[in-house]
Amino acid sequence: MKITPAAAGWRSASIHQNFYLIITFLLFGFASIIAQTVYIREFLVIFFGNEICLGIIFAAWLMGITLGAAVGALVTDRLKWPVELLTLILIAMCLLLPIEIYVIRLSRSFLNITIGQQISFRSLVYLSFFTLAPFGFLIGAAFPVACKIYKGSSDQLVDPAIRIGWVYVWESLGSLAGGIAFAFFLVERFNAFQIAFLTGCLISGVIFLLLKTGALPMFKNSLKIINLLLLVGYLYCLLFQAGPWHNFTVKQRWQSLNEKIQLRESLDSKYENLSVGEYEGQMTLYGNGHPVFSFPDDYTYAPLANFLLTEHPSPQDILLVGGNESLLKEMLKHPVNRIDYIQLDPKAIELINKYLEPKDRQIIQENRDKKLFIHYVDGRYFVKHTKRKYDLVIIDMPDPATAMINRFYTLDFFNEVKRILKDGGVLATRSRSAVNYFGDEIGTYVGSLYDTLKEAFLYVLVTPGTEAHIFATDAPETITFDLNILDRRFKSRGVSTDFFVSPFSYESQFYLQPNQIKFTADSLVQRKYSYLNTDLKPVTYFFNLVLWDTITQAPITSGQGGVERPVSFF
């Protein structure tokens, strides 16, 4: 049997030394990916984040790694004691883990960001680089040092590239294990500080193994004492301080976002941070800092549910993607056969149910698996794969502030919805809009949705108002803003509610007045340019970023405002 140089190197090297180094590299990758994931999740809450935020965060992280790797490469060849240096780097990583979580959570206070105000693009860049670059620097500096250590522990006949490659292999396997551990175990059982201290304890433990390969006995003993103190301190913080620190920083973060609203509960799911706030008896669910919906709010959701359902002459099978329990409660009062409710995050429903009024919770529970069927799945996936047909498909999602949400506003998705609509079926969606003035930014933004729906459906109607409700169908005389028709449809359902007086509620809440309807329709039709939002060209997402740019008054686009036609992209 032929023995390769690599195999000979492995056999000739110290088994124990290689084992200690492998464990070190695995834990290094494990800690790095967990730190990165925790930091990203914390930033998304503070920044109301989208993919632009993620891009800046990753840029800061990778810039730190690049600088660290450059510095590490410069000093590595001169190092006589690389094990001791790597130990110091790992100790510094342990110390930075909880400190940076603290800084991120209190960053809005440090920057004096007004409550409710979005952080500007410039502040986002500064804070990301200031916070993440130091940790990234340590990771980058550790790699060339680790490669030197592993090179010295292997037989010189082994190709140096192979020895360096193995460092990346072990680090990557550690990252894989860290990602799996975080997503399927840590995130829903421990808060961010507990995860940081637990990870620090693991790193501290492996430092003892790493020091067994060191070269300076006196220095090693000093590092062992420092590391022992660090391990004891982290164990103490994990057991006794992580909870108080978490509660304090969550409260401070919350006050920087919603000072007058009392925080009732905050938790992390696999997908996002979820919080419930209370103001004068009304609860609001927040996802990554964004308000999702408020409850109880029958004055809002009773008219909305009835409006949506009366845009179809007789809806029997309904698909609701997004939405909430308050909307569902009103929809269940209609004589429908089935409502399929799509919610990606089970934790969101669990959290909401804890604070629903008993009568509302009872309505939901009584109809579960009878008229109401809840599916914990991605809405786009469900629409693409379901075999059912629907009279009415309601897309009640936030504005396309991220590429993920934009998937529910594209031509590709609207064509997928058409496939599952019955003859005469209606699609209903929503968007931010304007009442009496369509400037360049808001006009182009809403107009791109209108143009995209017109490409997919023959008939499209858009309500006036700061929140536009948009209806689309291929059937004539189905969707309408005629108050008499909507009134007849509503009365024929036999719905009993104390919070909706038809047709007055339509006219007052949804601005269904002839002059406003005409103004909105004319503003959308008479625009100079037409845009189609697709999966591969997410123009509506882009225009939403332009709105963000305008609102924060920190320009990231060229010119003095407005939206010019970007020919190269569209």
Descriptive key words:
7-stranded mixed beta sheet; alpha/beta; disordered N terminus; 4-stranded antiparallel beta sheet; 21 helices; 570 residues
Structure notes:
With 570 residues, this protein is of the alpha/beta class. It has 21 helices and 11 strands. The strands form 2 sheets. It has a 7-stranded mixed beta sheet with strand order 7-6-5-8-9-11-10. Strands 1-2-3-4 form a 4-stranded antiparallel beta sheet, sandwiched between helices. Helix 11 (325-331) links the parallel strand 5 and strand 6. The longest helix is centred in the middle third of the chain and has 41 residues, at 217-257. The radius of gyration is 28 Å and the shape is elongated.
Write the layout of secondary structure elements.
Layout: H1 5-12, H2 15-47, H3 51-76, H4 82-105, H5 107-110, H6 121-153, H7 160-186, H8 192-210, H9 217-257, E1 262-268, E2 273-279, E3 282-287, E4 290-295, H10 298-310, E5 317-322, H11 325-331, E6 338-342, H12 346-355, H13 358-367, E7 372-375, H14 379-385, E8 390-396, H15 403-406, H16 411-420, E9 421-432, H17 440-456, E10 459-462, E11 467-473, H18 483-492, H19 504-509, H20 514-525, H21 539-552
Parallel strand pairs: 5-6, 5-8, 6-7, 8-9
Antiparallel strand pairs: 1-2, 2-3, 3-4, 9-11, 10-11
Helix pairs in contact: 2-3, 2-4, 2-6, 2-7, 2-8, 3-6, 4-6, 4-8, 4-9, 6-7, 8-9, 10-11, 10-18, 11-13, 16-17, 17-21
Summarize the entry for a quick read.
This protein is of the alpha/beta class and 570 residues long.
Rounded mean pLDDT score: 86
Number of discrete helical segments: 21
Strand order within the widest sheet? 7-6-5-8-9-11-10
| Total number of beta strands | 11
How large is the share of residues in beta strands?
5-15%
Radius of gyration: 28 Å
Distance between the termini: 61 Å
Major sheet characteristics:
7 strands, mixed
Multimeric organization: single chain
Q: What structural class do you assign from the helix and strand content?
A: alpha/beta
Unreliable stretches (pLDDT < 50, length at least 5) are 1-13, 554-570
